[in-house]
């Protein structure tokens, strides 16, 4: 290794150390100021080993872009399956603290969109650019004083944009805007009152605000495995003892043959019969997926809420023998 390479490696280590120092001084604990968090901050600030913090910028950056930046400029190759780690151990805390904005270019972008991006806030960028200067201490003090107000404004903006869903006469939840969540709202507020009158909503999947009825899950013997992809909505029909597993489809993910089999495996130990439902916003969307939809499932279209399509004629909206709790 020549002197130039040694110097470059030293610069890499120094920048990582400085990034972790910034996070600690901003009040983050050890987990959110570890190496992954430090590299993530460097990527979001576009600070390469040979740049000063005063040269930081705030590009729009997705999780893949963060991973690519770290590999290219800091020589650390995180595997594609590390995306959730970067999101869960760094980015989501940065967003919650007001350091980073999610989708500032399109706030209603779906949470599962491949175009989902993050960006340092203007206030954070100006603070970071002062690191290692005489202004750092005073700017850090002013930033921390303002941080509570920044968080309040972010929370207010999120509440305004959120979609409210009535789970029961006494329970309302709020989910992030955009994506499939308007369809999830229609499933709960239109499909369920029509077809599952005694239904209890026991699960709603949302990247930011997942809802679970732990009491009913325990009664039914449902154990959610973090490694398993859950349906978007789970409803328990307490009169007929059915468990409806519902997918809200806007761009992908109808219940095809493989998905039906996978869901059977995930819920094989519960005490209710399984009913599989794919929900679409309109017929146009459904037509794109017609050749994928599994037999022995149901389809509901929000633009025609009073009707349901049954894929097979043996029975209408009910569990088949192979999805009854007694089936082995």
What does this structure look like?
With 328 residues, the chain is an alpha+beta fold. It has two domains: 3-160, Orthogonal Bundle (Arc Repressor Mutant, subunit A); 164-323, BsuBI/PstI restriction endonuclease, C-terminal domain (Trna Endonuclease, Chain: A, domain 1). The chain is built from ten helices and eleven strands. The strands form three sheets. Strands 6-5-7-8-9-10-11 form a seven-stranded mixed β-sheet, sandwiched between helices. α1 packs across α2 (35-45). The longest helix is centred in the middle third of the chain and has 26 residues, at 136-161. The protein is elongated. The chain starts with a helix and ends in a 17-residue tail after the last strand. The mean pLDDT is 86.
């Amino acid at each position: 290794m020549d002197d130039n390479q040694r110097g470059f490696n030293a610069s890499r280590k120094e920048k990582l150390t400085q990034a972790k120092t910034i996070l600690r001084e901003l009040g983050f604990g050890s987990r959110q100021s570890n190496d992954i968090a430090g590299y993530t901050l460097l990527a979001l600030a576009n600070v390469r080993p040979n740049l000063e913090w005063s040269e930081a910028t705030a590009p729009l950056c997705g999780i893949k872009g963060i991973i690519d930046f770290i590999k290219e400029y800091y020589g650390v190759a995180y595997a594609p399956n590390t995306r959730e780690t970067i999101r869960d151990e760094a980015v989501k805390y940065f967003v919650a603290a007001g350091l980073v904005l999610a989708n500032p270019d399109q706030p209603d972008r779906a949470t599962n969109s491949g175009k989902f991006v993050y960006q340092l806030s203007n206030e954070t960028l100006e603070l970071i650019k002062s690191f290692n200067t005489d202004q750092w201490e005073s700017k850090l003090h002013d930033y921390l004083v303002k941080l509570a107000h920044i968080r309040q404004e972010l929370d207010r903006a999120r509440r305004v944009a959120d979609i409210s869903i009535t789970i029961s006469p006494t329970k309302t939840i709020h989910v992030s805007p955009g994506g499939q969540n308007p369809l999830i709202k229609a499933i709960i507020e239109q499909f369920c009152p029509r077809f599952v009158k005694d239904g209890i909503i026991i699960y709603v999947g949302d990247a930011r605000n997942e809802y679970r009825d732990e009491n009913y899950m325990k009664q039914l013997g449902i154990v959610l495995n973090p490694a398993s992809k859950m349906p978007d909505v789970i409803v328990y029909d307490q009169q007929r003892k059915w468990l409806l597993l519902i997918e809200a489809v806007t761009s992908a993910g109808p219940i095809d043959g493989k998905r039906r089999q996978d869901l059977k495996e995930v819920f094989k130990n519960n005490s209710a019969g399984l009913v599989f439902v794919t929900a679409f916003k309109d017929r146009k969307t459904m037509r794109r997926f017609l050749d994928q939809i599994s037999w022995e499932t149901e389809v509901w279209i929000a633009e025609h809420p009073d009707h349901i399509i049954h894929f097979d004629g043996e029975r209408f909206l009910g569990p088949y023998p192979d999805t009854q709790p007694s089936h082995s």
